[in-house]
Amino acid sequence: MNRAPLKRSRILHMALMGASDPSGEAEASKEKPFLLRAFQITLVVSLYWVTSISMVFLNKYLLGSPSLQLDTPIFVTFYQCLVTTLLCKSLSILAACCPGAMDFPTLRLDLRVTRSVLPLSVVFISMITFNNLCLKYVGVAFYNVGRSLTTVFNVLLSYLLLKQTTSFYALLTCGIIIGGFWLGVDQEGAEGTLSWTGTLFGVLASLCVSLNAIYTKKVLPAVDGSIWRLTFYNNVNACVLFLPLFLLLGELQTLRDFSQLGSAHFWGMMTLGGLFGFAIGYVTGLQIKFTSPLTHNVSGTTKACAQTVLAVLYYEETKSFLWWTSNMMVLGGSSAYTWVRGWEMKKIQEEPSPKEDEKSSMGV
């Protein structure tokens, strides 16, 4: 069956919005029954939720558990990067041995590529380190609010680095996020659980997440556009750069004095943390593939809400109405920003270009 050709504007719209060819979607929906597609989407979204929430709770245990009493955040982060590096290399070898069984790029360490990725790796290291340090000093319930300024930094850096302006409605949603952040900080202080150190690390983590997105786009051509190759080189660089930090901050001696250093349970939890760190990248891509970038953002926001509720229940905390209000402001502002930007992009792509208007007026 012949399919009608798509206009260039429509193709661009689909690329930017993460959509696919509507006629292709129709054919795909005919191939797969609705219940099967619904089951697949539910399974993928659930997998993303379980992996992401489990990783946060497990990292909190490794970084700040009173029963573990391990004060080596750099070593914990280094070990997770090491696990990710070994997993990437193992999967690459497995894919080379069994080419039909799985699809994974070939990974060979190239010093030229390593140097090209290095600036991004510095930002990547800062991002994961500040994330873990924030989680070490604040509770899981406040973790989402503490790292909520990523959207605000996206807007700010887009203007400063890319000279891109932002609409009034998008700025309004950023104002809601900032208001929710400050209200959350105020309520944590009122309850006597505020950590200014953890909050500062959360703000720095948000900044680094924004910078990481910008530098990732610049560096991707160096690894042939492969996210897995970028993951491999990022984590190789991280392992090398973490070693001097690990020694300079005295964590080697702390690790030597750690009473559970020979415990199989401890190393099992550490390795599991590394597996979750590797898996989150895969399930994130899987969720976007089976849904859309917009649905992924909505799912992430809803997951953050569920994570906050679970943390309050698990740690048996009591929170005030204003504390919950701050979380709703952050989550609502983030969701509104995603919707506004998607609506603006859709509106731009659906507007006819001046040339098309001219042609239509001439009857061409």
Shape: globular
Mean model confidence by pLDDT: 84
Count all strands and give the number.
0
Order of helices and strands: HHHHHHHHHHHHHHH
Summarize the biggest pleated sheet: none
Which class of secondary structure composition applies to the elements? Answer: mainly alpha
Protein name: Solute carrier family 35 member C1
Subcellular location: Membrane
GO biological process, one term: negative regulation of Notch signaling pathway
Pfam family, one: TPT
List the keywords.
disordered N terminus; 364 residues; mainly alpha; single chain
Commentary on this structure:
By secondary structure, this protein is mainly alpha-helical. Helices cover 78% and strands 0% of the residues. It contains 15 helices and no strands. The protein has helices at residues 8-17, 22-31, 34-64, 73-97, 111-137, 140-146, 150-162, 168-190, 196-219, 227-248, 251-256, 264-290, 293-314, 321-350, 354-361. The longest helix has 31 residues, at 34-64. It is globular, with a radius of gyration of 23 Å. The two termini are 27 Å apart. It is found in: Membrane. Pfam families: TPT. The chain crosses the membrane at residues 38-62, 74-96, 116-134, 141-162, 168-185, 197-215, 235-252, 264-284. Its main location: membrane.
